[in-house]
Amino acid sequence: MSDQPLLAIEGLRVSYHIRSGLVPALDGADLTVHRGEVVALVGESGSGKSTVAHAIVGLLPANGQVEGGTIRLAGQQLTGLSERRLRGIRGVKVGLVPQDPTVSLNPVKRVGEQVAEVLRLHGLADRRKAALDAVDLLDAAGLPQPATRARQYPHELSGGMRQRALIAIAIAGRPKLIVADEPTSSLDVTVQRVILDHLESLTRQLGTALLLVTHDLAVAADRAGRIAVMSRGRIVEAGPAAELLSHPSTAYTRRLLASAPSLALRRGTATAAPRREPASAGERPLVSVSGLVKEFPLPRVGAGPHSVRAVDSVDLSIDRGQTLALVGESGSGKSTTGRLILRLTTPTAGTIVFNGAEVTHAKGAALRTLRRRAQMIYQNPYASLDPRFSVAEIITEPLRAFRDGDRASRRHRARELLDRVALPASTLHRRPAELSGGQRQRVAIARTLALSPDLVVCDEPVSALDVSVQAQVLELLAQLQADSDVAYLFISHDLAVVQQIAHRVAVMRAGRVVEVGTTADIFQRATHPYTRDLLAAIPGGRALPLAVERNPA
Amino acid sequence: MRRYLLRRLGQAVAVLWAAYTATFLILDALPGDPVSAMAGAGLDQAPVDPTQLAALKKEYGFDKPLILQYVEYLGRAVRGDFGNSVATGRPVTATIAEALPQTLALTAAAAVLAVLFGTGLAVLATYPRHRFLRQLLMSLPGLGVSLPTFWIGLMLVQLLSFRVHLFPAFGNDGLRGLVLPAVTLAVPTGAQLAQVLAKSLSTTLDEPYIQTARAKGAGPLRVHIGHALRNAGLPALTMLGLVVGNLLAGSVVVESVFSRNGIGRATVGAVTVQDIPVVQGVVVLGATAFILANLVVDLIYPLLDPRIVVATDRRTPA
């Protein structure tokens, strides 16, 4: 390691121009990355970590502006460089691995062409050689059948494969630094692990330094030699990973560490939410589902199958006041199962019994009763609230739909519900745009509770939220369950979150439930290899081996 | 693919039938009747011999009940016979065939100009880094759409024919005569395309894959033309299928302003004297043009965006 750092950021200040004036995003951020080093930049949304990443490659949004400080790459000052000079740096001196692989490749260009473009732009190869090199790069990024993939379009590749293609793009110009902006947060945990493993060995092999921007402390703990923690536009703490994790020196880092579910799980200190004891054995389950099948028709192309089984002979039951978690990777059929139970879509086969009555093909009044008794919370609180409604209108909409009470009583109920989800009454007249992600999800929960349902299907209710907010929302859900005896079907890809809230866990894969058990059984005595895979993929394993792995029961 | 084309053919037949029937009913509901118009009764108020009028009506079949007239006309139309013009006595198909090449040349030239002009303006209006310049250029399409076609035509004639004798002011002579009418017709159409494309371009430029391209070191022109334009093209292409109707409608005005022969002028003439067979023929022609244009557009989609597959039923999961 030479004494001059590869990347040196000093006192960086960046602001965004918005309608109401200037909003500071970075307020004197300092960061160094040495050659060949992996540094994790950790922070919650709005902390400025992505702004740092974008500032390094000179790609701040149009309304962003560097107000002060310096960014030096291998001794060369980047701040204040002309756009033309910056173009000579992007791709060859700094590579970028973007956040969401599903939208970060040009949908109308072949994958190989997009990799080759880097080489062509910087005159590193002619057309013919660039095309060949692109295949080698895709191979190096760990994409199977790289020659075939190079001729395909992005939509023909899975999310993980697309991220590999983006990694190939980032390494194509042999940069000394790769900035990876949340490279795996939109991927499944098992895919995340493989991709990060590969990125790590690749950068080591090439001697490239990696700046890993992430919201996930556990990922940072696994991957980085050094960790820098950001909050409100500043680096609040930076140091060797092991040291920072075991002896955090600031309160902010301590709080972040405490609320990271996967780290808590691995420490065996997961703050178990208040849980009611399982119902007495004789009691009838609230929901029981048997042999549930859902097939979707496929577009007719050639001789392929005419339909796909999203849900395949699923049996489940949920007791009153209990939480059943449905875990699995994207495409495993867990959301479809949730929608089937709510009868938002009709099953191809099987039966659904709700509250003692069969609702598999319920229509009219029976279906309306089900709608009243069973509600849903969606993943994305930014998309599931009508932006033109006020909070009061949002919360009372179910009441209006069921002609429940008069204006005054509904208003009173809205106030009461807001109080239950711990939002001030002044929120009533605001619109979703004025609220934070966590506040919005609270509003969504209040809406769900308006009709006092027996069952709430929570579809990834916290995965769009920051870890500290996640913890609060999970606590709220558990508290509400303890108060009102509502049952949850908790759909999640995140086992660490599930461990905090579920009584029982069902693991889904390719439409089937491969294992069901109590939360303790699944986490300590998982029998199915797939469940074990999922558990092993929970990040944080290198820093803190899973409690289960340390002392197998 | 064959299934797809067959289905589209079925749709086309349904559309043509509906257009034919609707025109038939509307024309019947108009006051007056074509035979009286033909006999000149409506024009100079000279009394026409009622027996003569009845004979004429009988000859053209106007004395029969409406439904029988309809069935008879439709039956002949299916066989490609739209009857004879009430005004001139010549077959409708011949009248149209004679006027068609002029209008085809005009609308084709206008369509090409509109695409070039629309794309150029959209790219230009989204390219500059200066906000003010972008907004100024962005306001041009709106202006182009709001200018009346006849006014553009008259201005062009005034400037380029009367002041600087560059192009003929009217008539059908060759390419030089085509320039002004085609430009006139292209301005509002191109402006509409520009509006849609510019909007789509500025949205596309905010897509994450544009950032990926820039992070590779691609310059602004390459990003704009090489990455954004093709992605942004789909809405404009849809628009293009729809503006074919505008071009045909616009040809009515443009051909009148520039005194060109063509379908537009033939239509105006036929409507004025209630020449039902000719109007029917023109409507069927217009519907056919519309159907063809949209079929071509639908076949171009997959070339522009590999995610679109044409030959399959696009059924979305329930």
From TrEMBL, chain A:
PROSITE patterns: ABC_TRANSPORTER_1 (PS00211), ABC_TRANSPORTER_2 (PS50893). Pfam families: ABC_tran, oligo_HPY. InterPro entries: AAA+_ATPase, ABC_transp_ATP-bind, ABC_transporter-like_ATP-bd, ABC_transporter-like_CS, Oligopep_ABC_C, P-loop_NTPase. Keywords: ATP-binding, Nucleotide-binding, Transport. Gene3D superfamilies: P-loop containing nucleotide triphosphate hydrolases (3.40.50.300). Residues 9-257, 287-535 form the ABC transporter domain. CDD domains: ABC_NikE_OppD_transporters. GO terms for biological process: peptide transport; transmembrane transport. GO terms for molecular function: ATP binding; ATP hydrolysis activity. Belongs to the ABC transporter superfamily. PANTHER family: D,D-DIPEPTIDE TRANSPORT ATP-BINDING PROTEIN DDPF-RELATED (PTHR43776:SF7), TRANSPORT ATP-BINDING PROTEIN (PTHR43776). This is Peptide ABC transporter ATP-binding protein. The gene is dppD.
TrEMBL record, chain B:
One of its GO terms (cellular component) is plasma membrane. InterPro entries: BPD_transp_1_N, MetI-like, MetI-like_sf. It comes from the Bacteria. This is Peptide ABC transporter permease. Keywords: Cell membrane, Membrane, Transmembrane, Transmembrane helix, Transport. Residues 100-301 form the ABC transmembrane type-1 domain. Pfam families: BPD_transp_1, BPD_transp_1_N. It comes from Rugosimonospora africana. Its main location: membrane. Gene3D superfamilies: MetI-like.
